[in-house]
């Protein structure tokens, strides 16, 4: 890991933290001018949350308006807390505008699957929903869950009922709440992975919003009204969190879940028998930024301390509630925990967490990560069970024309599989817990449907976000572009004898960072149609951010931009040296120390001894 230096000195000088900045209006007296002035400064979303009656808003009525496939703008913000986004097909926009037609509205639905584990029965139910309501495709995301795209408004309630029937839900999959909790997936180290998965599930359950709005709106559940704020939403209150909040649990040596990109993380500390003795706690990671606004930046998380297993959930709640109370509710671009920590300093933040848990955190224990990708093909666990990690291009599970039949193949496998399925943080799927005697049968089905067990080294280490046509924020293509670029880059790498070199590459259609591009050795971030910023120099284990290498590169020039760097790497690398590390040592890009230094391209912060 990098040294997180300059800010550590500043922490001693950190101001006394402010009290909670969101407020419940007094019940026993009129609101004062000062309170009204503070409320007026809040971001628009804060007012939407306050007025929503614990996430109800006008959703129930909006669903009954059959004249439009859309819902109101405010409800569009609220529906995120229910795991949905209103979208439109951007490919169809020009044609529809020409014909003076409304946009082609539909909804993206994101499930909450803590730790990314589902049973074969659930797989079959989700497959059925995909075929019936969502264009026969499931989309595995970068946070271990599934999304459906293209569900029309009139089918929303039916889809949600079917999800409920599969004993799953979409509560808090999006919105200003704790999102799907991720955990190290491949269950090979049985004890440690079991503990990681249990912790993810327990945190997910304990930080789940308690409002009954979800059941009421989507399943016609009973309306539970009234009650004090503390009873309806004891942890969140009426205004929930200032912004999204993401938690993850990692098991070294693999950082497959990209812990440093998360608001809060737990790193398993193992004894010599691979059992968990406690967790290092990380805080303040995040990827999103805005082009041209240097006050926004990605940031890798700090390791804050060590916690015993019995206190981990208390720590999760304390970290989240400090962010609830200290996070910026006036400016959503400055609202994530990473900015709160930059503002108050890690020491002050840690002290407040300790006050809330009534204990001192231990000092962090040593740990080592080796990579942030998946292990493809078969692995055997400590208990003799087998796990097959499949390479799913951009997580899109469908039947490809003249290509792999992911949807049909995995459905057929789910009909005979006795273990479980696991989604990885890199958009891939694991057929897990296969007994030895069933391994050959599963493998035969995988082959029969042309499903890919692996790919070339670059592709194995790639992620692309959804982007066009569904993402309303995309500035450029990503999922539909990266495969072609990789074909070009594979040729170039092969020319330099690097065909089998493990290099991480990630692309996004905008700087929000959904594929975590700023911790990939090669990061492409959409700038405009067919134009990308090229970021280089991140660490292979996901612990160091990259640096902007070249602005606004045309898609057609990316291969030619990278080719000389591959050539130089092939000639000048030390044995075992990774591409990102080499580019810094050779002086092609400056080392990024952390978020505030991300936009500094001068290299002034490069440690001595580096070129
Ligand atoms: Fe994301 C917004 C897709 C993981 C940072 N993200 C979006 C939206 C919902 C666009 C929108 O707001 O209208 C995208 C929907 C596209 C679509 O059509 O499906 C979207 N994000 C995704 C997914 C599906 C990408 C993928 O290809 O797999 C991932 C779903 C995760 C999940 O299952 O919960 C996804 N998003 C991430 C990650 C990666 C992670 O969490 O490990 C990040 C970076 C980490 C972080 O949060 O800092 C990420 N998404 C964002 C942001 C920027 C947040 C910020 O702090 O600035 C936005 C925009 C926003 O929140 O305003 C965003
Ligand atoms: Fe959309 Fe941008 Fe996220 Fe890609 S990174 S899915 S373009 S918000």
Any overview of this molecule?
Among the domains are: 59-83 and 171-357, 2-Layer Sandwich (Sulfite Reductase Hemoprotein, domain 1), CATH 3.30.413.10; 377-448, Sulfite Reductase Hemoprotein, domain 2 (Alpha-Beta Complex), CATH 3.90.480.10; 459-599, Sulfite Reductase Hemoprotein, domain 1 (2-Layer Sandwich). The protein has 611 residues and is of the alpha+beta class. It has helices at 6-11, 33-40, 44-51, 59-64, 73-78, 93-98, 120-133, 156-165, 190-206, 213-219, 229-232, 312-326, 337-344, 346-357, 406-416, 439-448, 457-460, 482-495, 558-572, 579-585; strands spanning 84-88, 105-110, 117-118, 138-140, 146-151, 182-183, 247-250, 264-270, 276-283, 302-307, 377-380, 386-390, 396-397, 420-423, 429-434, 462-464, 505-508, 522-528, 531-536, 547-554. Helices cover 31% and strands 16% of the residues. Mean pLDDT is 93; it is low at 1-22 and 604-611. Strands 1-2-5-4-13 form a five-stranded antiparallel sheet. It has a five-stranded antiparallel sheet with strand order 3-14-15-12-11. Strands 6-7-8-9-10 form a five-stranded mixed sheet. The chain has 20 helices and 20 strands. The longest helix has 17 residues, at 190-206. The protein is globular, with a radius of gyration of 24 Å. The structure holds siroheme and iron/sulfur cluster (SF4). The site of iron/sulfur cluster has 13 residues, from loops. Iron/sulfur cluster is lined by residues 465-467, 471, 473-474, 478, 508-510, 512-514.
